[in-house]
## 1
Amino acid sequence: MRALIAGCGYLGTAVGSLLVKAGHEVIGLRRTEDASDELLRVGIIPALGDLTDIRSLESLSGKFDWVVNTVSSSRGGADVYRAVYLEGTQTMLEWLRGHPLKRYVYTSSTSVYGQTDGSTVDEDSDAQPATETGAILRATEDLLIQAANEGIPTTILRVSGIYGPERGHLFRQFVNGEARISGEGHRWMNMVHRDDVATAILAALEKGQSGRIYNCTDDVAVTQLEFLRWLSQQFNRPLPPSATEEAATRKKRGVTHKQVSNLRLKRELDWNPAFPSYREGYADDVNRICKGLGRTSA
Ligand SMILES: NC(=O)c1ccc[n+]([C@@H]2O[C@H](COP(=O)([O-])OP(=O)(O)OC[C@H]3O[C@@H](n4cnc5c(N)ncnc54)[C@H](OP(=O)(O)O)[C@@H]3O)[C@@H](O)[C@H]2O)c1
């Protein structure tokens, strides 16, 4: 297959590398040249361009069988979300109408589930986002479902918090002594290792259904407190202090509390995470950091 990874960053590079190893030809699109050497090292052909600009897409040569959209807002706010996800997807779809393909996969987010009651959510659960940015991702999904109804084979993955080499916000905060427990620490967190998202994308490209949504998260949601307790044991350090009330209130906006189910992805696409939980996923990082500190992990 010939594949385009639009927005070929942290996740996109891992996907591209997996596709290259499976024998596919992969082109990785991004706006800057910064990572071109990194892409070339894993066999991805770098292409410079902006997916929100149809001229960039038209200038890509040849036909693509698969397109994966892993563009991100690069930590921007609602305006950037709208430009990159919603308008970017509109542009991609406009381009695809003249370039038929076998599968388009988009990485949405589990932030589209606004539940705050700790319940388990699957793809049939209400997806009413709690934030403006979540609502933009949801509107982007709607565009893609509509496109599927019009014959463009789009598939959506709702991905939870991605961690992996050099990523994992709370983990890094803990290591740097900056982590804080929010409230009682009882909020559920849903996470997935980057390499497992890559295999889920490959499964969606090969076997995903058009217009279908699949949650992509590991096998265990974990409360913030349980995760921090585990880190405390691993590093033999005390639990971090609680957040100040002011910081907790600031963080509370848009904070959800839910356990995301991955059963559809497992049952329908035969996906199984190599890192079923944070324990396996962070094991290497923990060992490496402990080794640097001159001791073995718990
Ligand atoms: N990180 C998470 O926890 C998480 C959770 C759920 C879902 N997701 C989704 O997973 C996907 C991948 O996330 P990631 O962490 O891999 O993001 P990332 O590392 O920021 O990569 C995104 C890439 O997109 C490129 N890009 C940005 N705007 C572009 C544009 N207009 N045209 C072309 N390329 C553009 C960026 O490179 P240039 O700046 O060089 O263009 C960057 O390399 C995103 O769709 C994100 O919404 C992430």
## 2
Amino acid sequence: MIVYLLACTDVEKGSPAANPDTHVLVVGAGMAGLTAARVLHDAGVSVTVIEARDRIGGRTWTADVGPAKVDLGAAWLHGVNGNPVADFADANGLSYEEENFRWSTLYDEASDTQLGDSGWEQIEDAYDSFENALPRLKANLGDTDVMAARSRWLSDEGYVGTEARLAMFAVDQWMVELEYAGPVDQVGLEEFWEERELSGGEHLPTGGYVGVVDALAEGLDIALERPVTEVRAEADGVELVAGGERFVGTHTIVTVPVGVLRAGSISFSPGLSADRLAALDRLDMGNLEKVVLVWDRKWWDGNIEFVAAENSGRFPEFYDLTELAGAPTLAGLYGGRFSREVQAGWSDEEIVADVLDVLGAATGETPPSPSYSTVTHWTTDPYTQGSYVYLPAGASSDDLAALAEPEGERVLFAGEATEPAYYGNVHAAVMSGIREAQRLGVESIDVPGWEEW
Ligand SMILES: Cc1cc2nc3c(=O)[nH]c(=O)nc-3n(C[C@H](O)[C@H](O)[C@H](O)COP(=O)(O)OP(=O)(O)OC[C@H]3O[C@@H](n4cnc5c(N)ncnc54)[C@H](O)[C@@H]3O)c2cc1C
């Protein structure tokens, strides 16, 4: 009784969280689901997390690639001021380090040359120039895709030859396909570059995201390897079918990615609202993917950027993770159009072989065979179906707001794509988990680091 009274001090009187009969079923043990579960659990609410995979963390996944520990999903904290991930880490004895990657190699495939410092300057100038031109391009072109705006800007600026290739690289790769992850000819112009950013600089969690994930999950009731296929809401509760098993509760918080909702692999009864279905139809998942290669010895110099002819996006960026991962490691990132092509049919062996080809061209050395390699497949993974949400032409952040709306009183939603200002990030997922715990009545949060949220 005393325990219950103490717990009640944190929750709104008369809310679901204040009712001792409340049992919340959280679908998905990614950052949004773990956050919602952690906040509710620490406010004294009974919670079960139901996860499809045999691991927690979702799109945060610190894996062993041979001796190297590497984040195969999210790696960065994009800004630490006002970031609930940083606040949680600070309060729970977890550290993160300022990112200090420095670009070294810049290779232009079309001219088969190293471009050096002047190439970097041209890329940075083009980046700034496109950023400055955006308001004018938006006013003139209206609701179209970023590629249309980039083409207009290229001809307005009169870029030609290598300069034009570098300008295309700055926009298509740096600003769009490695950032929003969607194809540049589909990412919408209207709200492009307008989502909110956190200040404080780019950081990397020490030892990877696994530290944060494990600390969040500590003590929670989590059922693994239970893919939810049915969510039924009745007048007095909810029933979920997951991996052939029935779970009964009073409320559910569904945190699965937009790709999973769009695929229709979970059936909802009653059916999803017309607003949510229309929003899901307009939205899409980007396709950022990683290739991680580990060697016995470091054979290259610094980071590598690759400017392909026609700007195809063929493995455009590599980070040297040797210090962070504890072994000689390069992580390649690619997204957008090229990623869709690769993920549609290349084998892992073909991907690694092509990456080695790119690295050989960019460095002028023949790379030795890696001792270990891992290739991600977020795009075809049934529990993600892409990397993170982006706004295609015709969609808007109102669609993300529509995804945050509950369906009736018992079926709630969280996840990065339900956070209209910060979508696509780990902090968006965490913010959405906090939001839904608050919706159920948690008033003052007991989780160390989140007392002020
Ligand atoms: C390659 C890559 C790089 C990224 N880099 C960064 C970065 O550097 N910094 C950053 O801030 N963000 C980054 N992100 C984005 C970030 O990872 C996500 O925004 C965030 O982790 C999403 O969390 P979530 O809880 O919303 O979704 P998820 O992590 O996807 O969690 C949803 C969970 O639901 C589970 N699930 C799915 N279907 C079912 C089902 N039917 N039944 C039960 N469970 C189900 C999934 O397995 C998953 O565990 C990156 C993402 C990718 C893919």
